[in-house]
Amino acid sequence: MKLTKYGHACAIIENDEGNKVVIDAGDWTELPEDLNNIEAVVCTHVHGDHTSAENVQKILNANPNVVVYANSESMEVLADVACKKVVVDSDKVEQVSGYELSLYFLDHAIIWQNSPCRNLAVKVNDFYYYPGDSFHIIEEPVEIAGVPVSAPWLKMSEAIQFVYDVKAEKVTPTHNGILNDNGHMIVHNWLNNIIADTGKKLLLLKNGESIQ
User: Fold this and answer.
1) Percent above pLDDT 70 for the chain
2) In the CATH scheme, what is the code of domain 2-211?
3) pTM of this structure
């Protein structure tokens, strides 16, 4: 199974049969030219850096049978996209083309006083876990976890604590589209400083890079 990072918070997962799942292809994501064999799209929440009607439409154009999983707030953004949709407003497990998608219905992390919206965390098989805009910890172990590292709603100490707590063999920074080169250097230095203590491996993926 292969994980490829795209843009800000997007990940594309491909299994041995070539079927793909796309997570959070938002407005800040430049999709690859090859959009074939995408079976499912997960949008974790309504914010534009995670849910883009334009990008979902591009995926649909190449994959007429694609299924989109999102909460009801995100589905409002996708109202004009005529695809198969599954509304996720509670915890749910879905099977699609060799994948088990475990979807966790949560609050988005607080930016100021209250959570701005609802949020989905997603686990793809036992391969990849991504908490969306949260630091939600699940009990199930995975091979790779995406750790958000830069946003108005987080502190570096919270990202570090997530790295310690998440049950993953490897962690990879995500939600980093607002960082410049200096910001990436600072984040990576902090993660490198603590990663040995966690017993985990740190994967630093640039846009379009993969781990298999």
Assistant:
1) 100
2) 3.60.15.10
3) 0.97
